[in-house]
Specification:
By secondary structure, this protein is mainly β. It is built from no helices and 14 strands. It has two domains: about 110 residues, Immunoglobulin-like (Sandwich); about 70 residues. The chain starts with a strand and ends in an 11-residue tail after the last strand. This is Macroglobulin domain-containing protein.
């Protein structure tokens, strides 16, 4: 993407990555990770996708594993002290646009937790101005000992609060068959600057 400022002529260029894949990663027993590659639009599993795993040493990336997803869009790989994964990429057919993604697991697997409900919230951008619309997508899933399943048909309440934790909006949503929902909030035009929750 290239942006040129009118009067000053300042040029800003940035790479824009477009991919149809999303990968969810979780730590599982026996010192392993399990990852599911999903179609980013439908949420359906993507079989036979190539997952490339990388390590990083002194700023240099090295591919250490290349795995194909199974019929359920899943792969497993070891979690060891010797291998510190820097991230992964996913590709299939002509979709090779995913930049290096960090492995988003920052917790220690706890075998005593057998049924954990989780929610991932995504917004269309990181920074908003007063009066803009915030588009929200959520994915609800249940992690069990060695599996993860989406939570379909569940009702949730989204509450948006301002920087002082005052409620400025509330929406009722229900997950679809893929465990996801979408909604939107319009930020008040005279609202406070800062973080909204």
């Amino acid at each position: 993407m290239r942006i040129v400022a009118g009067k000053t002529g300042v040029v800003v260029e940035n790479l824009l990555y477009i991919t149809g894949f999303k990968m969810l990663t979780c730590a599982i027993p026996d010192n392993q990770y399990e990852a599911a590659v999903l179609d980013a639009e439908s949420g359906k599993p993507v079989p036979d996708a190539l997952v490339r795993l990388f390590t990083e040493k002194k700023g240099e990336l090295t591919e250490v594993k290349a795995l194909l997803t199974d019929k359920d869009g899943k792969v497993r790989f070891p979690r060891t002290d010797e291998i510190n994964y820097a991230g992964y990429t996913v590709e299939k057919d002509t979709d090779r646009g995913m930049p290096l993604q960090r492995i988003g697991v920052s917790y220690v697997f706890n075998e005593s937790v057998t049924n954990l409900w989780q929610m991932i919230l995504l917004t269309d951008r990181a920074l908003y101005r007063p009066g803009q619309t915030v588009y929200v997508k959520g994915i609800a899933y249940r992690s069990q000992t060695d599996t993860a399943n989406v939570i379909a048909g569940e009702k949730y309440t989204l509450t948006l609060t301002d920087a002082n934790r005052r409620e400025i909006g509330k929406k009722e949503v229900r997950t679809n068959e893929f465990g996801s929902f979408t909604s939107e909030f319009v930020l008040p035009s005279g609202g406070l600057n800062g973080e909204y929750y």
